[in-house]
Amino acid sequence: MLTTSLRIAQKALKRNKLRTGLAILGMTIGVAAVLTMFALGTGAQESVSADVRSAGTTLIFVRSGNFTRGGEESRIPTGMGSTNSLVPADADAIAKIDGVKYVSANVKERTWVETSNQRFYTQIVGADVAYPDEYGWTFQKGKFFKESDVASAAQVAVIGSSLRDHLFGDENPVGKEVQLHNQPYRVVGVFESKDDEQADLAIIPYTTAQKQLGTSSIQMVTVSAEQAGDTTRISDAIKTLLRSRHHLDNQITQPTGGVALGGLQLPGAGSGGATPDDFTVKTQSSEALTKGLNTSVAAFILANMPQMDQTNSQEMAGTLSRAGSTMTALLAAIATISLIVGGIGIMNIMLVSVTERTREIGIRRAIGARQSDVLQQFLVEAVSLSVFGGIFGIIIGFAAALTITNVLHWPATISFTAVALAFGIAAATGVFFGFYPARRASQLSPIDALRYE
Predict the structure, then answer these.
(1) Final residue of a structural domain among 159, 191, 216
(2) Comparing C-alpha atoms, which of 109, 7, 103 is closest to residue 59?
(3) Which domain holds residue 170?
(4) pLDDT tens-digit map of 337-389
(5) Among 152, 159, 151, which residue's Cα sits nearest to residue 180?
(6) Residue that finishes a domain, picked among 195, 216, 237
(7) 314 and 91 Cβ atoms separated by less than 8 Å
(8) CA distances for 34 relative to 269, 346, 366, 397, 410, angstroms
(9) Do 437 and 351 meet the contact criterion of CB atoms below 8 Å apart?
(10) What is the pTM of this model?
(11) In 3D, which of 292, 255, 260, 289 has the Cα closest to residue 272?
């Protein structure tokens, strides 16, 4: 009977092509809207989650050498002073630590940046390709250099918006040359930063900077954590890793046995002759909090950074939960409205179809068709309309999400689950809104149906 119902449904739908097309169009628009909103909403939720997780201070600075001014007074190992202890392999090893998102080896110097008629004294930063992602820079013109440029030590440069203004004014500098150490560098991009000092920078591949300075070491490794509340743990992991890589002893370099003050821990006695680090690891938040403070107060603050990170993690977890609930409610509301509109369209079409085919229903009942057969017949037609509309809606939804992503640069994530859900909802809508017209058709009296004009 199902095969027969499908064949009859096909003939009935072809008989009124315009009406069938309009009914399918209503469901197509509904499903396309649902899938598009689901894709964009999911992408937005992922973006919000990433922003919330990274909100605050996620950067960790690993510097070559180690010296703490006044460290003897606070019984802190003062380190080995200025030394070239870091190499690119250290940055590669740090990148494998759990929770690390971006890593960039850095070599820095200050020099003149020149064009044919302008010059500006500023800082040159040798960096890896992840450097702009760590600071969230956007690009006004061009783009950042590539991994191949780093591998080949290419003489390319990316400049900040303020440096562009000093050297080129309102001109587009991409493709033009600047001079660094009397060497030509091709400008490949102009970045924009909220930090005025960063906007004056010129960024070149760190391998190019090494070649320029004649060194195989690096001065710093800039690390970005996935979550702001995880920086202290990652900092400790970096210290353990680098002490092992640099063949230092395994004793703890920080003083132990401190004194508790107001529930907080103050560093105490030294570690008993441990070999000091030949590097310095500081988080972005610790640098900001200890800037300008004397060594003993700074040590007190640094000793209690884990408690602050734990608080940050708890707050972020709560924020993510609330953001996810809000986004889910928004998507559910949009989906409900879109599908109700499409479903009402199908119900109207099926009610009209029942009215037009009243005599047909009477004839079928007169020759032995049961109520369940008529009910199944009209349900099959309603589900066919919604399923065809769902298929077209999925195709259009994919295209719409892709177009919006490319044009508006809005993140969109389309999963198999979303497609299956959209298709399943389309079929369920056909059953739900087609049941009443089908039931009404099945309950028609055969005699009354045959008399209908």
Answers:
(1) 216
(2) 103
(3) 112-123+133-216
(4) 776 777 777 777 777 777 776 777 777 777 777 777 777 777 787 788 878 88
(5) 159
(6) 216
(7) no
(8) 63, 17, 43, 8, 17
(9) yes
(10) 0.57
(11) 255
